[in-house]
Amino acid sequence: MESSILVCDDSNLARKQVLRSLPEQLSAKTQIAKNGEEALVILRSQNIDILFLDLTMPVLDGVGVLQGIKDENIDVAVFVISADIQPEMQSKVLGLGAKAFLRKPVKTEILNENLAKHGFL
Amino acid sequence: MSTLNLNEDQQDCLQELINVAMGQASDQLARYLDTFVHLKVPSIEQVDAQSLSNSLKDEQMAVAVVSQGFFGYEGIRGEALLIYQPKDSDRLADLLGYEPEELSVEEQIIDLSSILTTTFLNVFAGQIDNQMSYSAPRLLSSTKSLVSEHLHQLSFNWDLALKVKITYQVTDYSFNCDMVLLIPESAIVNITAVLNRILDDF
User: Fold this and answer.
1) A13 vs B13: CB contact, 8 Å cut-off?
2) B6/A81: higher pLDDT
3) Strands (E), chain A
């Protein structure tokens, strides 16, 4: 089955790091968003299975996206990938429904581990 | 005058390396102050030696400047300055005052600055397969005077300043400080090479 994946990060390098870390066996259609607002537009109009979400972004940050997903009942598995590693931030995003919190720069094995844990591999 | 002359990809790469370093430095700050720090995207600006004094115009009223040298492999080295404004310094004193210790406010500002600088640079260096060592942090000023005077006091020769504007919002308090990295010509060449190496990987 093909998964549809959205990578939301304001950094081109960070988006590439995520895309490069995606396992080959995860046959996926990938899209990108450069801020939270762009991500919500895509999430509202298309079925996205997995969202990789940065937190510190211009326009609308990752917490705003998680709140939007919650408020609008959007069905998507969110993996937060962030440099803001404070424990309080981690519990905040998990409380808002994120499946996992991964620290930047993301490592391939950690990404795979978490995808497998949540049934995507 | 030397500048990094970064293209869009190199700028983005540097920004992301700095974001990751900032994130961990803020985590350390949060632990030190036992509070939560709201992070903003840091703005990065390149300033050459001649115009740094002008660019620091806003900072001329700085009350505290903490300076610390850093040395890595492959000629990556420089001097990191953390610059606090009077209102921010006062807030910092309030914040630090929450946990009365035997240290003076000056000593605590040095400690805090050193935590920010070394965590930031350690994480930055780690991402480019480098490793830093540091000189002891020095408080250059505790009274109102020109930052440019302190710059002239540095024996260190530098060609470029990378100015990273850091805003930490700490719960009810918010304070800002500027981190300015002064970098010599040899290190500039090397940093650009490192950015290209990372970008070539993709």
Assistant:
1) yes
2) A81
3) 3-8, 28-33, 50-53, 77-82, 100-103
